[in-house]
Amino acid sequence: MHGKTKLLWEIFITFLKIGPVTFGGGYAMIPLIEREVVTTKKWLKTEDVADVFAISESVPGAIGINSATFIGYRIAGVWGALTAMIGILIPTFLIVIGLSISYLYFNDNPKVEAAFKGIRPAIVALITFAGYKIGQMAILDKTTFITAAVTTVILLSSPLHPAFMIIIGGFFGVILVKIKENLGYNVL
């Protein structure tokens, strides 16, 4: 198999394996994406993946699909992006179709209801773990910790839309970096 074709096949298979972790949405995929891309395959560094997740969260669309697309692009350009996106979409699509059909036939079944009662808290745990992993990648110093804490308080206590917090966060990030540069700190 040619080098580029082999790489694209590896990207496809990697994201095809990640796709079934659809339960809980894209945030549940984040720890698995990071493990596969950084630890197992060593295609990207942790800080590169953190940047991809930040971009993926701030653009419209599902974070899992956005992340796969951006990571595929970083690894192998446009073909890598398409390959990763298709790889992560196929199992997600099939699972959603299968669950939709099953739910129509079995939604009143007590065992199905019991299964969903068990799945819901597991999803919360997956999303919490994803938040923890993102926090490890994004909170680098006191400034980023304070920014995350203030943002969390604002989001929990006000009706402000999260998209505005992303814009405000970018604005304050630029200001804080300039302040640190002027104080002589190494910012990158």
In short:
This protein has 188 residues and is mainly alpha-helical.
Describe the structure.
This protein has 188 residues and is mostly helical. It is built from 7 helices and no strands. The protein has helices at residues 3-18, 26-40, 46-58, 63-106, 110-138, 142-157, 162-182. The longest helix is centred in the middle third of the chain and has 44 residues, at 63-106. The N and C termini lie far apart (39 Å). 24% of the residues are buried. The mean pLDDT is 84.
User: Strand count, sense and closure of the main sheet?
Assistant: none
Indicate the percent of residues in helices. over 70%
**In total, how many beta strands?**
0
Evaluate the radius of gyration: 19 Å
Residue windows where pLDDT falls under 50 for at least 5 positions: none
Oligomer: single chain
**Overall pLDDT, averaged?**
84
Shape: flat
Through-space gap between termini:
39 Å
Number of helices: 7
Q: Report strand %.
A: under 5%
Secondary-structure element string: HHHHHHH
Structural class: mainly alpha
